[in-house]
Amino acid sequence: MTTFMGDPGPRGRFGDFGGRFVPESLVPACDELEIAFREAWLDPGFHQEFEGILHSYGGRPTPVTEASRLSEQLGVRVLLKREDLAHTGSHKINNVIGQALLARRMGKMRLVAETGAGQHGVATATAAALFGMDCVVYMGEVDVARQELNVFRMRLLGAEVRPVHSGSRTLKDAVNEALRDWVATVEHSHYCIGSVMGPHPYPWMVREFQRIVGDEAREQCREVLNGSDPDYVVACVGGGSNAAGTFAGFVDTQAQLIGVEAAGGAAITSGVPGVVHGMLSYILQDEFGQITEAQSISAGLDYPGIGPEHAYLAASGRAQYGTANDEEVLKAFQLLSRTEGIIPALEPSHALAYLVREVGVSIPLGSTVLVTLSGRGDKDIPTVIGLLK
Amino acid sequence: MVPAFSPTTSRMRFPEVAQVSLTERFQQLKTQGKKILLPYITGGISPDWIEVLRSMAAYGADGIEVGIPFSDPMMDGPVIQEASSLALGRSVTPYSLISEIARAEVDIPLVAMTYYNLVFRGGHKRIANLLAGSSVSGVIIPDLPYDEAEDWITEADRAGVDNVLMAAPTTSNERMEKIAKRSRGFIYGIGLLGVTGERSELAASALQVATALKSITDLPVLVGIGVSTPEQAREICQIADGVIVGSAVVRRVLDGAGPEGVGEFIAQLRSAIDGLS
Questions:
Q1: Is the pLDDT of residue B8 over 80?
Q2: Which tens digits make up the pLDDT trace of B101-156?
């Protein structure tokens, strides 16, 4: 029997995917990080501190909410894992607290991060403020414009936000620029990657820092569902960190796992295997291997790749991946706001949109479905105002 | 994992193109005590880039590194990023460049520099054969470190293309020895922690990397990244067997120096390192 979502070994492989495709200058830093993470993750003291901060500072555990009016309207029982209620407004805080603790253990007091929607940038800036670290966040010029509020939040938290003018000026280019920074500053900086992507050990490490989402949700669902698991577990996927964290809690159950990508950035549906940003995974690219640009209403899903473990879960069939387009997403965004009084971020609105479309099609009426609500929608209001007027 | 093949370009042939062996030529220069000059140009940067390349050869380059542009060049600073976008904007592809290179007819080794996705996507075997058939005798892939390179090196060896590995200021001596054993043609010492680009002074790390590499390998040791002027080239060649100059050349092309102007810069680099031993 295949074991899913375990230790990817020293070469960081999930089946054929993953690896460590970085310039030689960064190989020793990745080695050092892997050793530090392995040690920390076996250290009860580290877990105690990590979970303690997530509890007393991050607001964990986040609840699972029974979405009764939405359930009635759709004809399936919908449970929401409420990462929108975590500190900073999304699940991103889990990963950055873990990585900041590790950086401190390694004696690195400068954090470098990329951000798309700004949620990871805000979370990193928050952790840097909490631990008294320096923080530089790279953000594509396009995203700086459409996520003005988060840019201001990061600056308020003491981080330096550097707009990226190269390429498509979105998340992919922010990753390139963060990597370039890290190549030059690796001796005293830690690259705090925001998703389950990049070179080994990041995809594995970030999933482990996020598995608290899935571990909590599994126990909470069992309480609500008299000991059973949901039939379906649905989460949105850009790089795929909230989905990986959620799936980690359910991969050993009978639940069907579904990741939902933005239709304009669907690496699994439309990409082919390739290597970028240090990892072998499904990547949107042309016939020559040039990376193509993703297009989505949601800055957080505007990414041409996907974490390598998702590539493996897809290739092996353990998880299914679908898409939602901008129009469906806007409708789902409004639907949840009106039925449950929860304004979701545009990213998890993809998971909701998929559910709305697939109920009665691939998801039978009467099913029980857990949706991870990875973040709250405040940051998206300026975008949505323009589209709904 | 079997990389994907593109059907449209699988039958490219370049009859009777002479390949100058990178290993043989550089070893010969090293034995003669002659310092090696390996300038870089981004393939397709301008319509006359092949003329620039020929001029570089004529003015004293011992080999030329040809960048095959990639959409996401994470090891490159602003100058080479701009050159790559310009070239991609001119719709060059790895295959159009390879066929242009095949017609360059220069009597020095040509070394392709590109990122791994273009090789992976094209397929190891096909890319190795295409490079060899177009007179390219070496290749540098900065995002394919030693630990991930084995399959590609096997294929490149079979086709007769030397895969050059890199060693960085952060690389341990133990790892440098492993890298040196698997590198072909020469070993690329990364002069500083950072991306490609001009610097006002040669970094101390360049001299340290060169010294460390010289003590563990008989391969020619060339240092690049952050070497921008004839003076810096001379300084590093006090220790290293040769020097790689990229952004300083490319900036001149971007500024419109043309084949002659770039050639003159190559001549300056040449005379700065000649006579050292």
A1: no
A2: 988 999 999 999 999 999 999 999 999 999 999 989 999 999 999 999 999 999 99
Contacting residues of A for B74, CB less than 8 Å apart: 23, 176, 179-180, 183, 277
Is A114 a residue of the active site?
yes
* Token digits of residue B244: 């790689």
Whether the ipTM is more than 0.90: the answer is: yes
Q: What residue in A sits closest to B145 (Cα-Cα)? A: A24
Q: Which of B71, B166, B193 sits opposite A290 (nearest CB)?
A: B71
Specify the domain boundaries for CATH 3.40.50.1100 within chain A. 13-53+91-202, 61-90+212-388
B150: exposed, middle or buried (Cβ count in 10 Å: 0-12, 13-18, 19+):
exposed
Going by their DSSP bridges, the two strands B162-164 and B136-140 should be labelled as: parallel
- Gap between the Cα atoms of B80 and B254, Å rounded: 10
Q: Closest residue of A to B172, CA-based?
A: A28
Architecture of the structural domain at A13-53+91-202: 3-Layer(aba) Sandwich (3.40)
**Per residue in A38-58, pLDDT tens?**
999 999 999 999 999 999 999
pTM for the full model?
0.95
pLDDT digit string, tens, across residues A207-220: 999 999 999 999 99
Please identify, in words, the CATH class of the domain defined by A61-90+212-388: alpha beta
Contact B171 A24 (CB under 8 A): yes
Chain B hits for A11, Cβ within 8 Å:
147
A288 and B1 within 8 Å at the Cβ level: the answer is: no
SS3 A320: strand
Q: How far apart are CA B246 and CA A3, in angstroms?
A: 47
Closest residue in B to A293 (Cα) is B71
Q: Do B193 and A22 touch (CB under 8 A)?
A: no
From B16, B24, B51, B65, the catalytic residue? B65
Q: In this predicted model, what pLDDT tens digit does every residue of A124-160 receive, in sequence order?
A: 999 999 999 999 999 999 999 888 889 999 999 999 9
Q: Domains plus CATH for chain B?
A: 18-273 (3.20.20.70)
Catalytic residue among A34, A114, A216, A328: A114
Name the average pLDDT for chain B.
93
Neighbours of B5 (CB within 10 A): 14
Number of helices (H) and strands (E) in chain B: give both, helices first.
12, 9
Provide the token pair at A319: 């998880």
> Which of B1, B9, B70, B72 is best to mutate for the A interface (most A CBs within 10 A)?
B72
